[in-house]
Design goal:
The structure holds two protein chains of two kinds. By secondary structure, chain A is an alpha+beta fold. Chain A is about 35% helix and about 15% strand. In chain A, helix 2 crosses helix 5. Chain A is globular. Chain B is α+β, with helices and mostly antiparallel strands. Chain B has three domains: about 210 residues, Aldehyde oxidase/xanthine dehydrogenase, a/b hammerhead (Aldehyde Oxidoreductase, domain 3), CATH 3.90.1170.50; about 325 residues, Aldehyde oxidase/xanthine dehydrogenase, molybdopterin binding domain (Aldehyde Oxidoreductase, domain 4, 2-Layer Sandwich), CATH 3.30.365; about 150 residues, Aldehyde oxidase/xanthine dehydrogenase, molybdopterin binding domain (Aldehyde Oxidoreductase, domain 4, 2-Layer Sandwich). Chain B has 20 helices and 26 strands. Chain B has a seven-stranded mixed β-sheet, with helices on both faces. Chain B starts with 12 loop residues before the first helix and ends in a 5-residue tail after the last helix. The chains are: A alpha+beta, B alpha+beta. Chains A and B meet through helix 2, helix 3, helix 4 and helix 5 of A and helix 1 and helix 18 of B.
């Protein structure tokens, strides 16, 4: 069936099978491979995107459910070529190593910071609980999010 | 200049924070089909028959195959069999034919237009199984009456291996004032790199060549194993490309059955094939780590001096051997059992055992965390037995800083010596950060109020950059090849530098650190250097990245290639300046006659002259292009002191880490920010072993912790913040003076956390609890040992 999804500011019409996950539509049909798949039980959060401004795991949303939605993926986070403050902070604070969890982690952090303007470390750690990182031990991710909060 | 030792930001990050990096699953090729693998639901079974007719008829299916379709493809090799002993090796085929020995082994494959269709068709394959009895415990597998997994391995023993001096150690224990005995389990862990494994392959019938994209930490080794051992074709016929790799932690070192299968399918079906692992497959079909059952006896004098250590370990190999499995619990474990201590006699006996579980191989630290856990728990038991302070017992037994190079007793390190160390210094610094005396007072006061605080120490050594090749290789420790590393540097006409290397970053930031080495040595901007790895066509042969070898071996190869560039540049500059090369100085990217800096030629001018080749000294070839194949004379031996402070909830048994202090000495540091990041990540994995993670099989060999819902990969809220510090004791082994930092955190942290919890539980008289220290286990221990309260 046909769905129309606004992805990174552009309206896209896609013919999807009812069982396709949103992450499949983004990656395979729209070529937006920045959104990664790290698990099959909605634990890891690597596939997190913003749906109508809220962080969702795109493996738990069907493509058809995204009909009419406004989706932001990691590819759409820059404005006029400038990094979003959270992207910049992840770079500045070495908040990534292998980088596989990073797109989802950054988008979750963006969502977190829209709800908490000045989060403490505990709030950040709880806010990121739905996103797993195996490389950083989270230390520099927490520092990056705090720094981004200061700059936003 | 001076870029070495600076925390410059990573040059690989822009593509990773924007989603532009290309991981394996992002690869799309024209006409690509997708594979899905039917895996055994049984841990031990005979395959009586497989019917694929219905699957073949399913719309969108391109082909369905079983192991019988690949009888011309050899089984995978085991490239590291334990050195000096007989190994009863058994290795997997790309698809199993007659029998499976763990759940998750592949027995059939569907190739279809897309992965959804391939998965649908898997459900249409009928396999007639004959289930066989199952054993999952490594010690029980060696006992009489246990199910037998392989004909060539009586009592399921893959090999028996020993090091040290059995008789001298027995005497030492006999003569000790106290001997502590304890059995411990170092539980099975599941690596869980965030990117699962995957493989894509394309076959070119015109050239009879394959291009294989693979999530690999060691693409050149994969090429070697696939061509020379599995397919029996010329090494030039396979090109491996390891794209952006999303973490490995050891589990992406190996050649796996799926990689062979997908490569073979690409030829069979004449189109590109991709297989990307699901997370559930990752749990059952990717290697696990640790899984030791160990009996420890440690002897000491009344003053705390250790007199002897005897260790007997059953190491679980899983149902079949992964690529380097037998070497991990032997060379990388037994030979490390002296740790930072001067132990007069050591004996270690290891039995590698087959069980009906997933393959076990190197996982972050690989043998060294298990050895450190043995020693660091044992030091605490000795302290407890003698009523001494655990920090004092450690200090009493440290190898003094003036005794390096140091050969551990009874030749357990097989001829090698620790390079350098100053163990008191890291412990002093860590204790200072803790404010130890104050903590003990606080602990006493807290206990009176029914609050259980504990402190745990872990003073460790590591062994990084395993070398030289003649030591680790077939003449010595049984590794099936060499362990040198390569780098090539080319300086182009405009003075821009391309470095290619056999190292393979999978998150470590080699594109940054190796560029720092080159920029520093040549006196040029780091922005003028790019580092390329990943593609076996276009990089010199190398062994890849694991065992913290890419600093101590890989970056040194880079340095040596840069030094050769410099030497050639100086010889050309001598020609350009009409001077003697002995009179020239190379400084800040310029070459000049000593005392006459105004005459300087820049390295960029020299590169241009070299590249155009208009006027070269007699016999000199054009272009600045130098290669190094660096084989170190020894391993390197980082060390440090980690201290963990916990509070255990007396009502629930839940452990909260209040402070985590890590003072490491990894030798000279190329990029402190990156080293800190490595330490953080290592600590996280070690803490998670101590408190959360456990790969659990039921009696049928089904993995109960078989998904991220059931296996506790820790979240940000489950881990503490880390306080890190460093001392710097350069390694004399290599000219960079670096030691390696990839695994220290994972090696040191596990016993630090466990020792802290045991210290907190001291009022309850608890001697040991096996990991993970879940609230349930801790609470039960508190209930059953209530004597102290």
């Amino acid at each position: 069936m046909k769905v129309s999804i606004k992805v990174n500011g552009q309206l896209r019409e896609v013919d999807v099978e009812p069982r396709w996950l949103l992450v499949h539509v983004l990656r395979e049909k729209l070529g937006l491979t920045g959104t990664n798949v790290g698990c099959d039980t909605s634990q890891c959060g690597a596939c997190t995107v913003l749906m109508n401004g809220m962080a969702v795991k795109s493996c738990t949303v069907l493509g058809v459910q995204a009909d009419g939605a406004d989706i932001t993926t990691i590819e759409g986070l820059r404005t006029d070529g400038a990094y979003h403050p959270v992207q910049q902070a992840f770079w500045d604070h070495h908040g990534l190593q292998c980088g596989f969890c990073t797109p989802g982690m950054i988008l979750t952090a963006v969502d977190l910071l829209t709800h908490h303007g000045d989060p403490n470390d505990e709030t950040i750690r709880h806010g990121l609980e739905g996103n797993l990182c195996r490389c950083t031990g989270y230390e520099n991710i927490v520092r990056a999010v705090r720094d981004a909060a200061d700059k936003m | 200049m001076g870029v070495l030792g600076q925390s410059i930001k990573r040059r690989e990050d822009p593509r990773l924070i924007t989603g532009e990096a290309k991981f394996l699953d992002d690869i799309q090729l024209a006409g690509m089909a997708h594979a899905a693998i039917l895996r055994s639901p049984y841990a031990h079974a005979k395959i009586k028959s497989i019917n694929t007719d219905k699957a073949k008829a399913h719309p969108g299916v391109i082909g369905v195959f079983t192991g019988k379709d690949f009888m011309d493809v050899n089984p995978l090799p085991c490239a590291w069999q334990a050195g000096g002993v007989k190994n009863n090796a058994n290795t997997p085929r790309c698809l199993e034919v007659d029998r499976v020995t763990h759940t998750g082994m592949g027995v059939a494959v569907v190739v279809a237009q897309d992965r959804y269709i391939a998965e649908d068709a898997l459900a249409l394959i009928d396999v007639e199984w004959e289930p066989l009895p199952v054993v999952t415990d490594a010690k029980k597998a060696t006992e009489a009456g246990a199910p037998q997994l392989h004909e060539n391995a009586p009592n399921n023993i893959e090999c028996e291996w020993e090091c040290g001096d059995a008789a001298a150690t027995a005497d030492a224990l006999q003569g000790a004032d106290v001997v502590v005995k304890q059995s411990i389990i170092n539980q099975r862990l599941i690596p869980n790199a965030m990117e699962p494994r995957g493989c894509a392959a394309q076959y070119n019938p015109a050239s009879d060549e394959y291009t294989v994209w693979m999530t690999s930490q060691a693409p050149h080794v994969m090429k070697l194993l696939m061509t020379a051992f599995v397919f029996g074709i010329a090494e030039t016929k396979i090109r491996i490309i390891s794209p952006q790799v999303g973490g490995g932690f050891g589990a992406k070192i190996y050649l796996y059955p799926e990689y062979v299968l997908v490569t073979a399918l690409a030829k069979k079906l004449g189109r590109p094939i991709k297989w990307n692992e699901t997370r559930r497959e990752n749990y059952i079909a990717t290697t696990h780590g640790r899984d030791h059952i160990t009996d420890i006896e440690i002897g000491a004098k009344k003053d705390g001096t250790i007199t002897g250590l005897r260790v007997k370990t059953y190491a679980n190999m899983g149902g079949i051997l992964s690529t380097i499995a037998p070497g991990i619990p032997t060379t990388l474990y037994g030979r490390l059992l002296s740790g930072p201590y001067k132990i007069p006699h050591i004996y270690c006996h290891v039995t590698n055992v087959y069980t009906n579980t997933a393959m076990v191989d190197a996982y972050r630290g690989a043998g060294r965390p298990e050895a450190t856990y043995v020693l660091e728990r044992a030091m605490d038991w000795v302290a407890e037995e003698l009523g001494m302070d655990p920090a004092d017992v450690r200090r009493k037994n440290f190898i003094p800083s003036n005794e390096f190079p140091y050969a551990p007793a009874d030749n357990i390190l097989a001829g090698l010596k620790y390079d350098s160390g100053d163990y008191d210094k890291t412990l002093d610094k860590a204790l200072q950060m803790l404010n130890y005396a104050e903590f003990r007072e606080e602990q006493q006061a807290a206990r009176k109020k029914g609050k259980y605080l504990g402190v745990g120490f872990s003073t460790y050594i590591e062994l990084c950059g395993v070398a030289p090749s003649a030591w680790i290789g077939l003449p010595g420790q049984g590794w099936g090849a060499g362990l040198w590393e390569s780098a090539n540097i080319r300086m182009h006409l405009t003075g821009k530098v391309v470095v290619t290397t056999g190292s393979q970053s999978h998150g470590q930031g080699h594109e940054t650190t190796m560029a720092q080495v080159v920029a520093d040595e040549l006196g040029i901007s780091v922005d003028d250097v790019i580092v390329q790895h990943s593609d076996t066509n276009g990089t010199p042969f190398g062994y890849g990245s694991y065992g913290s070898r890419s600093g101590a071996v890989g970056a040194v190869a880079v340095l040596r290639a840069a030094q050769r560039i410099k030497e050639k540049a100086k010889r050309l500059a001598a020609h350009m300046l009409e001077a003697n090369v002995q009179d020239l100085i190379y400084e800040d990217g310029k070459v000049f006659v000593k005392g006459a800096p105004a005459t300087a030629k820049t390295i960029q001018e020299i590169a241009l002259q070299s590249a155009v080749g208009y006027s070269l000294p007699e016999g000199m070839e054009p272009f600045l292009d130098e290669t190094s194949y660096y084989d170190p004379p020894n391993c390197t031996y980082p060390f440090g002191a980690h201290i963990c402070v916990v509070e255990v909830d007396g009502n629930t048994g839940k452990t909260k880490i209040l402070r985590y202090i890590a003072c490491d000495d990894v030798g000279n540091v190329i990029n402190p920010m990156i080293v800190d990041g490595q330490v953080h990540g290592g600590i996280a994995q070690g803490v998670a072993q101590a408190l959360y993670e456990h790969g659990v099989y039921d009696e049928n060999g089904t993995l109960l912790s078989g998904s991220m819902m059931d296996y506790a990969v820790p979240t940000a809220a489950m881990l503490p913040s880390y306080e890190t510090a460093r001392t710097v004791t350069p390694s004399p082994v290599n000219p960079l003076g670096v030691k390696g930092a990839g695994e220290t955190g994972a090696i040191a942290s596990t016993p630090a956390v466990v020792n802290a919890v045991m210290d907190a539980l001291k009022p309850f008289g608890v001697k040991h609890i096996d990991m993970p220290l879940t609230p349930e286990k801790v609470w039960k221990a508190m209930q059953s040992n209530n004597g102290g309260m």
